[in-house]
Design brief:
Blueprint: E1 3-6, H1 9-18, E2 26-29, E3 35-45, E4 48-58, E5 66-72, H2 77-88, E6 93-98, H3 108-129, E7 136-137, E8 141-142, H4 143-149, E9 154-158, E10 176-181, H5 189-197, E11 201-203, H6 212-227
Parallel strand pairs: 5-6, 5-10, 6-7, 6-8, 9-10, 9-11
Antiparallel strand pairs: 1-4, 2-3, 3-4
């Protein structure tokens, strides 16, 4: 017999009400430590679900390249969508940024609630995509503040106004890559220059101007294909 535990309210509700789980059903659990845990449901009642952990095994869902997303905060559901898809595409750290063209104001309790909301989206995206390590999301900060503290081997800033394409492969391995993308309306010319002065490579994905949420998905997929674990 393994280790019996009671699942939290959210997990219990999802299993019982959404997935219609039953006693003796098998499932895979994770707690953010990088392992997958095989478990079996042993009890379902009105207060929750009890499971027994059978065994744990290391998950192999994480890319060897740490991909960091610095995203100008988009409005409403767009930012939720960006956070969700970034997790599915293997991002390990997300920095919401306050930029010149950012029209979202987050202060005090509103910022706290928004961070909790994004954290819930991240956990749900991990469940959906099979990731067992929960990516970090940080409190919003200004672009200039983030540029002073960013740490990555290779940094890109996305802009439709430059001609630079993705560099040709040179065989050099990069353990971490940072991607900087503006909100609706993109980054200002001054912000792009700021980034370039701190060793960011300007990057254009193609001839069409993309919405911020489309640009994020496209750029992350391209970077994972070139430097990460897409094949």
């Amino acid at each position: 017999m393994g280790i019996p535990i009671r699942l939290d309210a959210n997990a219990s509700h999802h299993l019982a009400r959404v997935l219609r789980a039953k006693v003796d059903d098998n499932l895979i659990l994770f707690n953010g430590d990088g392992n997958d845990y095989a478990a079996t449901i042993i009890k379902i009642d009105k207060k929750g679900i009890d499971v027994v952990i059978q065994r744990g095994s290391a998950s192999h869902m994480e890319s060897s390249t740490e991909v960091i997303l610095a995203q100008g905060i988009a409005r409403g559901d767009k930012m939720d969508f960006i956070v969700q898809k970034a997790v599915e595409l293997g991002v390990k750290k997300i920095f919401p940024l306050i930029t010149d063209r950012c029209n979202v104001k987050l202060e005090g309790k509103r910022e706290e609630r928004r961070l909790q909301h994004w954290q819930a989206i991240i956990i749900s995206a991990c469940e959906q995509s099979g990731r067992s390590i929960i990516p970090e999301i940080f409190a919003p900060l200004t672009l200039s503040s983030w540029l002073m503290q960013k740490q990555a081997d290779l940094c890109f800033v996305l802009s439709p106004h430059v001609k630079n394409k993705l560099p040709r492969e040179n065989g050099q391995a990069h353990s971490s890559i940072a991607l900087l993308i503006g909100p609706e309306g993109g980054l200002s010319e001054n912000e792009t220059e700021q980034a370039v002065k701190t060793h960011f490579l300007p990057l254009n994905l193609g001839p069409r101007v993309l919405r911020t949420e489309t640009a994020t998905i496209a750029a992350l997929a391209v970077l994972q294909l070139r430097y990460g674990d897409f094949s």
